[in-house]
Amino acid sequence: MNSTAGATQSVIPAHLLKGQKALVTGANSGIGMATAIGLGRAGADVVVNYVADHDAAEQVVKEIKAFGVRAAAYEADVSKEDQVTGMVDRMVQEFGTIDILVANAGLQRDARLTEMTLAQWQKVLDVNLTGQFLCAREVTKEFLRRGVVPEVSRAAGKIICMSSVHQLIPWAGHVNYAASKGGVQMMMQTLAQELAPQKIRVNAVAPGAIKTPINRSAWETPEARADLLKLIPYDRIGDPEDIAYAVVGLASDLMDYVVGTTLYVDGGMTLFPGFATGG
Ligand code: BGC
Question: Which residues of the chain form beta strands (DSSP E)?
Fold first, then answer.
């Protein structure tokens, strides 16, 4: 997927995250890619995690380096404990520390209940929920070791969980995905409560329909697009940059008092648009 993010991301203040080190999982496509580029635009050094497609990850690294910051592509499957600990250890070694985790990596394996295999259920829970747990756990060890460095940030660390409108909206035919995002919501709030006294801020972003490879079938044809727009009061499908802006803001000290919140970035999808005329 080619990125056009560079141009539109010029609205991000270039020094907002200067000197901070960010790890973005699943950063070689879609929302993760735009977010990694956005963090680089804001002055952070960025590790671009990926599990497949090394070339795409290197392309993202190249775009980030163009902002004059450091970037590197690390391969790791976030659902595998040893790979996550290896990735975080390597980042601390090579970048010195970690200030920001964007736990973004996620996938869908859709099926109606009676057709859904245990493997499909398990895979989605492993990546979308367990993967975020493992990454959050490992970076938190580094946040606690280092503590607050006031010149860098008012917080000892920031974790941003990528959730979905489906932490709130039930989604027939996607029980594994909806359950994983419902889990992300309670995991995020629990971690936020647990870690706030240590000055670690945990929040989530819940995207609606964003134009990425994960939901290509929902926006690719004019018919699908028209159907999708019926669910979006703001009448446009989101761009990955819409999510990047929210993440950059939450990661920055501009939002230092935001703790344990989910920021819905969904063009109003969670406003029950059917009730605009019905009910
Ligand atoms: C899903 C997309 C879907 C969107 C809105 C996202 O979390 O990954 O496939 O289009 O929610 O339903």
Answer: 21-24, 45-50, 71-75, 100-103, 157-162, 200-207, 262-265
For the segment 159-175, the average pLDDT, to the nearest whole number, is: 98
Kindly give the distance from the C-alpha atom of residue 178 to the centroid of ligand 1, in angstroms, as a whole number: 10
pTM: 0.96
For a ligand 1 pocket test, name from 174, 180, 210 the mutation site with the most ligand atoms within 8 angstroms of its C-beta: 210
Neighbour count for residue 73 (Cβ, 10 Å) = 22
Per-residue pLDDT of 110-154, as tens digits, reads: 999 999 999 999 999 999 999 999 999 999 999 999 999 999 999
Backbone angles phi and psi of 200, in degrees to 5: -105, 125
State the distance from the centre of ligand 1 to the C-alpha of 82, rounded, in angstroms: 29
Tokens encoding 241: 């940059």
Domains for the chain: give ranges and CATH numbers.
Answer: 3-211+238-270 (3.40.50.720)
Rg, Å, the chain Cα set: 18
